[in-house]
DUF1826 domain-containing protein
Amino acid sequence: MTETVSVTSQGASPDQAEAREILESDSGLALQQVVQPGVGAAIWRRSLSSGFAEWIGNIPAGQLPALRALVDFRAVEGCIHAACDLSGLPAGTMRDLLASDIGALALMFAQVVRNPLMHLRFEAVTTDACRKFHVDQMPARLLCTYRGPGTQFGLRDASGQVVPAGKMRSGEVAILRGALWPGEEVTTLLHRSPPIAGTGEVRLFLALDPAVEPAAEARRLH
């Protein structure tokens, strides 16, 4: 199923094409469609198995793995296991599923962005980090929240106010276009982390970004 968000947005001149649609499906093949004209985000609307969701939801906060690394997609699964070892998360079938799933997502992302190298961020979040609606200053980003509420989407209306345009649930996967996406289209679909400060919720969040050329990296950091 494809959802087209029809709210007028700002950020592009009248003669510029906008990437603002949300394409969603219950198939992982949907992620490849982020390259289609006008698509700002492609979402794989999948559900975590009940056993896996229970396991990951019951991990003590202090044992949740954390990792930030520049890595080839072929090494991602092993890196997740190493992060789990460092956090004290015991080995087992569910941990294997987690590591293999992230490894598979890394492969899918590498195929879409045509780059084997990526920045991997996998960590617990308890604050309102990235609480403002924005477009990432990079070509693209893969997001998945394994525990807790997922990413929220928005578009600016004619008055400049952000209008809600959808959200993700635990386990769902999205590839979002960023401001440095190649081509003439301007990305106007916004997103943010859900506000959770003070709720006691803990999100376990994965983000993959393609490694970019030094000049583009400098633009991303400023």
Q: What stands out?
A: The first strand starts at residue 2 and ends at 3. The domain at 2-221 is CATH 2.60.120 (Jelly Rolls).
